[in-house]
Design a protein that fits this description.
five-stranded parallel β-sheet, 11 helices, alpha/beta, 5 strands, single chain
Length: 226
């Protein structure tokens, strides 16, 4: 007769959050699940990436707002060192500036910290199967952006953008902040802000989220490694 561990594959999980109370609370609950085992905790994005490289967990629960390496940068780095690990964002933030960069960085799911514990456990199971789970508020924003009218045939052509503005637009669409873009292109953050303003003006877009959606819809993003 099969034991519970033999009958059900164990889902290994890593928790990355700078608040010890959150980590402990999530761990205590997940450890009650017969098919989920927490294999590690990290108090920062950088520490989490290092642990993920060593542990290669099935699922990672990722906070977004952390000192040093934030959750978006950590997700991007983690997916490089452990591509098989599925990242679930678990955060208190549901604004566009957090949602879309996190998803583009490689997160499969996006949940808020008020999630019911049973729903969190189910989201972990779904992520392990490669299935996404989005908080209803987040799902609504994603659908709204997919159907956003500014990225229609009436939107101005990107042909009007300079080569530097195209570089900024692509990096923006990858989810990088102005400071990250400035560091990548070796220019000042003030210059990046000017480029972003010019991009929005030339394309008749309202904000950087719409600009990022525009870049993806127009096929301007280069495949990873190109």
């Amino acid at each position: 007769m099969l034991t519970p561990s033999q009958a059900t594959p164990i889902i290994t999980t890593l928790i990355i959050d700078d608040h010890a109370v959150v980590r402990k609370g999530v761990r205590v609950f997940l450890d009650t699940q017969p098919d989920i085992r927490v294999v590690g905790e990290a108090a920062s994005g950088a520490e989490g990436v290092t642990l993920a490289a060593d542990l290669a967990p099935d699922v990672v629960l990722m906070d977004l707002v952390m000192p040093g390496m934030d959750g978006v940068a950590a997700t991007r780095a983690l997916k490089r060192v452990s591509p098989r690990s599925q990242v679930i964002v678990l955060t208190s933030y549901h604004e566009d500036e957090h949602i879309f960069p996190a998803i583009r960085a490689g997160a499969i799911s996006y949940l808020l910290k008020d999630v019911d514990p049973a729903e969190l456990a189910e989201a972990v199971r779904r992520a392990a199967r490669g299935e996404a789970t989005l908080h209803p508020r987040v799902a609504a924003r994603v659908i709204q952006e997919i159907h956003a009218t500014p990225v229609s045939k009436t939107t101005a052509s990107y042909a009007d953008l300079t080569e530097r503005e195209m570089e900024v637009l692509r990096l923006l669409a990858e989810g990088l902040s102005n400071s990250d873009i400035a560091e990548r292109l070796v220019i000042s953050e003030k210059t990046v802000k000017s480029h972003v303003s010019n991009i929005l003006g030339k394309l008749h877009l309202a904000d950087r989220t719409q600009a990022a959606v525009y870049a993806w819809k127009k096929g301007l993003m280069r495949p990873e490694g190109d």
